[in-house]
Structure formats: C-alpha cells, structure tokens
Write a structure and sequence with these properties.
17% strand; CBS-domain; alpha+beta; flat; 3-stranded mixed sheet; two-stranded antiparallel sheet
C-alpha cells in the first residue's frame, strides 16, 4: 500500500481532452469515436465551457436502443440518413456530472463506486473544461502488478448473450436496458464473437448500411449480429490475476474480456468490474482513510 503524493484528481486525469461542438453531426461524432477510441466525448462551446456530453451508450440509445430512438422517428420520420446528419445536441446529455480540479482522488473514486458513471469531466474555477478522468485512469497504474486477486472474484457471472441472428436494434435495446457495452454472441453453447458498442458505431461510421439501398432506419437496424460482430474474440482464464487483466486491457485495447472454462462461457470482466473490485476492497479495509489513500497509485516501480 502506498499513499498518493499527488492527491488532486487533475494529477491523475487526461488533460488533452477530445471534445466537439453541439453542431457536429452524429455521423461525424461516430467517426471521432472510431478515430480516437474514446467512448465519452464532452461537448463544449467556443469559450471551452461544458455544454453536455455524449457517450457511446447515448448513440446506441439513439440507434434503436432506447428512448432517444424516438428522436430519430419523430424528428426525421425514420430516415436514417437525415438522422445521422442531425446535430450532436439532439442526443447529448445536458446535465453533466463533473468534478472540480482540486477534488481529492479518493473522493472521485468514491463517487465512481456508488454512481454508475465511468468518467467525469474536470472543470476549473472558471467552469472551463480542463481534463477528464475515467475508471481506466484509476486502474492503469496497476497493470502488470501481482495483486493476488483472480479474475473469477471480480467477473460478472450472469452474462447476457445474443445469437448470431439477433438484430442490431435488439442488441442495442439489450445494451441500454442493462447498461452494457458488449454482448457475447453464442452459437451452440460456444462464443463465436462479440457485439460491442464499438461494432455498432463502426457499422454507422464506415457506412456499411449503404448495402441495404434504403434510408429506412428500421430496415437498416435489422442487420444481424453475425454481420457486425468482432470475430477475433480474446478470452481469458478465470484464474488470471487482475494485474495481468489490467495489462491486457491496455495491450489489446479492449475494455472487457469474456472468461471461458474449456469451451464454456462462464463470465465476463470489464474495466468497471476491476475498478469496483479494487476500490471496494480499499473502501472496506480503510473506510476512515479512503479519501487520503490510493491503492498503489502513482508509486515508483
């Protein structure tokens, strides 16, 4: 255990934040997420003031997953081309939870533990955006460390899966209803692929929908999982140490892995699962010192 020498959240955060404007089209926003690998994009005005945020989940919601799909139907009469060229302001979340630049690291970790937010914009005293912090920032320093904490103790055991024939719109609904960003595709009890929010956004960004020769949203979103899923599935063993899991998150550039035993899918582990496992352990053992201590962050290797 080390005590953090740099306790303010801005020291841990990403300062070169990828942002965009409210007028950016939804298609251009998908392109930006594909290019940068970012799944949370703050929306700012010309004064660098935070106006909102769009996550990959917001976009999945818009593309058939939830209530924002009604915007597509009502404002654009189900015309997919019009819908993807709508301004980002149509789908962004206006009420954004943020943290101040001088907020303690432990306090922010505490908020992430008990609120379902995987990241926070960071504002300075003038309310301008100066950074962004995610669960990944918290766990990254533990990559490669021996934590003596097997993946099975952090994984989600009740895994929601889909079939190769599941339509994109149905996969989107499942993701939104269960606050998920990835769904294993299972055929004959074996995992054959993964549909991630990334894959659905790639379908939009790369204009793969053009092959349908229609502008009807309902028809385009009827594309099936087997045609959009990632087939290169990287599964891990349930005994793999969390320090190694974290290292693989960075190496493979994935935010989650299926966990298999033989050919059988027994769980899934994500960055959020790892964050909660590590920091809930710290919270349990050091409840009175949680805001002063950080579990192996910023130490010298």
């Amino acid at each position: 255990m080390w005590v953090s020498k740099r306790r303010e959240i801005i020291d841990l955060a990403t300062k070169d934040v990828i942002t965009t404007a409210p007028t950016t089209t939804i298609k251009a926003l998908c392109d930006l997420m594909m290019k940068t690998g970012k799944r949370k994009i703050p929306i700012i005005d010309s004064m660098h003031l935070l106006k909102g945020i769009v996550t990959s989940t917001d976009l999945i919601n818009y593309f058939g997953g939830g209530s924002k799909y009604f915007i597509m139907e009502k404002d654009y009469q189900g015309n997919f081309l019009s819908g993807i060229n709508a301004p980002t302001s149509k789908v962004m979340t206006n009420e954004v939870f943020f943290v101040n630049e001088d907020e303690p690291v432990g306090s922010v970790a505490d908020k992430m533990l008990y609120q379902y937010f995987g990241g926070f914009p960071i504002l300075n005293k003038d309310a301008k955006l100066i950074g962004f912090v995610t669960e990944q920032d918290f766990i990254a320093p533990l990559g490669g460390e021996k934590l003596n904490f097997p993946a099975r103790n952090a994984m989600t055991k009740k895994v929601i899966t889909i079939t190769p024939e599941t339509a994109i719109k149905d996969a989107s609904r499942i993701m939104c209803a269960n606050q998920l960003r990835r769904l294993p595709v299972v055929s004959e009890h074996q995992i054959i692929g993964m549909v991630r929010s990334y894959d659905i956004l790639k379908f939009i960004s790369h204009a793969e929908f053009a092959k349908f020769h229609t502008l009807k949203t309902e028809a385009i979103l009827s594309e099936i999982a087997v045609n959009v899923m990632s087939k290169d599935v990287y599964a891990i063993d349930e005994e793999l140490d969390l320090g190694e899991v974290i290292r693989l998150f960075k190496e493979k550039r994935y935010g989650g892995f299926p966990i298999t035993k033989g050919d059988r899918l027994i769980g899934i582990i994500t960055e959020r699962d790892v964050f909660r496992a590590v920091y809930s352990t710290l919270k349990m053992h050091f409840p009175k010192k949680f805001n002063e201590m950080v579990f192996t962050l910023f130490h010298e290797k």
